[in-house]
């Protein structure tokens, strides 16, 4: 039917004779003010769509009553708005838009069928858009208008002045409380690895669902409070987390834009109230871990995430609709994108586009900036979420994170590409392009593509966290020969200069003392036995008893040998005792590590006899960095170091923003194989980023994923850099193209082994 009607509009013979349009009788109209002018909003109750008409457009719209022909409508318009003229071509174009939108019809059979076909097509397009965005799924479920009416009867007190004052006071109290105890507040916050545990994420997942349900009912009840309607609620899967959504588009029927802004802000306001309550609950419940963790999750969700996502106008959430209402620009994103698209078509391709309605210059720049900013921010948010999911799921759930990444990338590229191709095919604009502008645009595009593939850029840097250590060639450890207990420290502390042979500490081994006591007792017994047998030999010799003399002599020889062995055992144990009791510096230098005073009396077990020195002496200005790199980065460094003998390194030290330190990665210092163990400081237990797996020996930390420990030589350290400190490291690899970087990042993210 719609196609027949449009064909009639295009038929010159029927144009002024037979075409009569009738506005659907079920449409609803509401007046609004925009920049001091009166506009009429038309509500389609079937499709739940809203259209805004100027005074002239609404006048023409009202003449489509099934009685006036196109010519009569034209004459009535020119009579009403003298001396304005209305061309029939423009009138027919306006009529086509109304027919396509389903707002007008004629008396031909099938008009209702066209209306419902259009509604079905809209539903299909919404489903396609929903499936195309895996990180933001909206599934309509029910009409909540009656439920909201019932709830509003019991909750109308929420919209009173005293509740507003009390809730604002609560939020201010929470903010003041945090500011007055900021240092303590910051200290109580868990680290990233502690916060994003499976338990915390489960709490956040459940809390987000509950909070978003309250959030959306805040929108719906606010709309109901201002006499609006809400006819759609459903399930929202935002970043795979369940929530609720409410369609309060009916707010566009309200003439007062501040009421519309309040409806959009209601959900954020509710979450800020919940965050304020959760702040006090978290602060005063440290003795109840479960309640404390849930309150912390709710506090973060309802404050930080709400401000970053819901209040952000660059995303199509509450902040977007608040900005659109404040600027009085409905469909801000669509208009901004259309304006930018038309600007490209006009300036770059020479395509004639319909002229925009009057728009102040600052609004034109606003549209361009907003379109570009929202597009860039969408990419940033998408990849940030994908990065977080990949980091959180880890190697064990790598396949799931890869599937999410592929689906999200497909939604970013495939659906927009499909819409662009469909738009070009429908409009048929290719023949209308101006050749000169097309060639210039293609040349510029080709230059960008060539630069993307061939222009060397500093995109191949390796950014990691490194551990400061003394160069092993300039460091000697003083280790115990066997487990012993610290008895006394001889005054030297880390950072002090020591001389070779200087006494550092006195130790005592209980096991060695017991063994030495036993050896001395055995020596005394063996010596006593040898002395007794010697006396018997002398006595038998004096008595002339040759037989007994020989027998006692043989026994004496054996006893004497055993006594000598016992003596040697005692001497050996005494030497061991001296070696354990006194630990001395093995070289001149600076004492780098040493036990603390409160460790006197501590037993230093076998770990300090095999792997960990008790004291270490070295040169504090001969520093290296232990930098863990992934296999991808290791292959990159190995490839570059086959061309160069060394690579430059930049080092940023926390608290030293005044300068950047330098270093080198040498070809001969690149490890031949991956690290079997890592230092504690580089693990999540010690404040680093590497996850470790369980090990039989708790003193040995094995990385969960494969890493290589690359050694970086610092070329300009100073005494303010301490061994054991974590620093930010950037290794300068050879420059490569942007295409190389994109391919490598995709390969790393999806683990497809291209690089």
TrEMBL record:
<dbReference type="Pfam" id="PF02163">
    <property type="entry name" value="Peptidase_M50"/>
</dbReference>
<feature type="transmembrane region" description="Helical">
    <location>
        <begin position="162"/>
        <end position="183"/>
    </location>
</feature>
<keyword id="KW-1133">Transmembrane helix</keyword>
<feature type="transmembrane region" description="Helical">
    <location>
        <begin position="365"/>
        <end position="387"/>
    </location>
</feature>
<keyword id="KW-0812">Transmembrane</keyword>
<feature type="transmembrane region" description="Helical">
    <location>
        <begin position="399"/>
        <end position="418"/>
    </location>
</feature>
<dbReference type="InterPro" id="IPR008915">
    <property type="entry name" value="Peptidase_M50"/>
</dbReference>
<feature type="transmembrane region" description="Helical">
    <location>
        <begin position="438"/>
        <end position="457"/>
    </location>
</feature>
<feature type="transmembrane region" description="Helical">
    <location>
        <begin position="262"/>
        <end position="284"/>
    </location>
</feature>
<feature type="transmembrane region" description="Helical">
    <location>
        <begin position="290"/>
        <end position="311"/>
    </location>
</feature>
<feature type="domain" description="Peptidase M50">
    <location>
        <begin position="205"/>
        <end position="288"/>
    </location>
</feature>
<feature type="coiled-coil region">
    <location>
        <begin position="516"/>
        <end position="576"/>
    </location>
</feature>
<protein>
    <recommendedName>
        <fullName>Peptidase M50 domain-containing protein</fullName>
    </recommendedName>
</protein>
<keyword id="KW-0175">Coiled coil</keyword>
<feature type="transmembrane region" description="Helical">
    <location>
        <begin position="195"/>
        <end position="215"/>
    </location>
</feature>
<dbReference type="InterPro" id="IPR001193">
    <property type="entry name" value="MBTPS2"/>
</dbReference>
<comment type="similarity">
    <text>Belongs to the peptidase M50B family.</text>
</comment>
<keyword id="KW-0472">Membrane</keyword>
